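Suppose a classmate hands you a notebook page containing two proteins, each written out with its sequence and a corresponding row of C-alpha cells. How would you begin to make sense of it? This section walks through that situation. The first entry is reproduced here exactly as it would appear on such a page.
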Amino acid sequence: PPPAYGVNVVVTVGPFEQILALGTPTLPASASIDASGSTGTWVISPYRLGTGSFVANFTAAVTNNVFPATPNIVATVNASFSSTSSCVLGVFCGRPDRVTATSGALTIAEPTMALSIFNSSVSTITLPNITVNEAVTARVHIVLPRVTTKMIVEFDLPAGVAAVASTQVQYGQQVNCTGLTVANTANATVIIDLGTCVNWY
C-alpha cells in the first residue's frame, strides 16, 4: 500500500499539569512540547500502512502552584490523531481523518499536615503551655498524595520569644525526595525545602 503522510498525534493535559517529556514512539516521529507545557505533538514520518501501531509514553507533573489553594485536582489527558490529504508526486494522496479520545479522570488529593508538640524539658508544665527557657519538641507530619510534587514546608514560631535549636527530617518508607534544605530564619520561621517528592504507596 502507499505510504501515509501528514500524520500527527497530539496530547493535551489539564490546566494544573505540565508535560515534562515525550517518550520515543514505536514509529519514527519528531516530538515537540509547546512553550506552556500543556500540549505535546508527535509528527510521524511517512510510513507504509499496516506496518504497526503507534505507541508512545509521556511524562507530566502537577504544577507547583496548585496546593493548597486548589484541593483534590482532577487530571485528564486529551489525545487526537489526525492525517491530511496531502499528495506526494501527485499520486499518493493521504486520507484526511481525525480521531479524539479523553482519558479517564484521576483525582489527585492534596497533602495533609498536622502539627503537634510532644516533648518538653520541663516536666511540671502541661503542654501546650510553655515557660521561659523551656525547650520543646514540635513535629510536623505531612501525608503526600501519590504524585510527584514540589514540597516546601514552612511554619512560624512566636517572633522574638522563641528560637529554633535544631531541625530533623524523616521520610516514610515509600517517599523519595530529590533534595533537602533547612533554613531557620531570624524570626523563628523554619523553611524546609524537600525538592521534588514522590510517594510510591
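The notebook's second entry, a different protein, reads as follows.
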Amino acid sequence: KDMDAEIVRLKENLKDAEEDEDKAKKKAKKLKEEKDELETEVESLRNDLRKTEHEASQLHNELNGLRAEFETVNADMAVALKGKGELELAVKSEEEANAQANRRADEAEAEVARLSADLSEAEAEGRKAKAGSDDLVKQLADLKLDLEDAKKSEEKATDNAKRLELENDKCEHEVAVLKEKLEEA
C-alpha cells in the first residue's frame, strides 16, 4: 500500500513537472513571437530610415542645384532664395525625421535584446523542468521494479506455505494410519 501511495504521489509530481515544462515551452514560444514581431518592426524602421536618408540626399542635391543656379543667374535670385529656404526647411524636417527613426530603431533593438534574454531564460526553465520530469520517470520505473520483486517474493512464500500444508496433511494422515494399526494390534 505504501508503494502504491508512493507511485500515485510520483505520478502526480510527474504530471506537475510535465505541466511546468509545457508552461515554460508556451512562455518561450510567446516570447519568440514577440521577438520576431519586434525584429520585423526594427527592419521596417530601418527601411524607413534608408528611405528618409535617400530623400534627404535628394533634397541636398536639389539644394546644391539651387545654390549653383543662384550664383549663376542673378535675375532668378529672389525665386531661388525662396526655393532654397523651403528646401532647407524640408531638409531640416527630413533630418529630424531621420534622427527620430534612428532613436526608434535603437529602442526596438534594445527591446529585442531584452526579449532574447527572456527567451533564453524561458528555454533554460524548460530544460530544467524536463530534467525534473525525466528524474521522476526513472524513480517511478525503479519503484515498479521493486513492487514486482515484492510480488514475486510474496508468491514464492505462498507456494512454500501451500507445500508445507500439504506435507503436514500427509504426516497427519500417516499418524492416523499408524494409530489405527496400533489399536488393532
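A careful reader of the second entry would note: The chain is about 95% helix and 0% strand.
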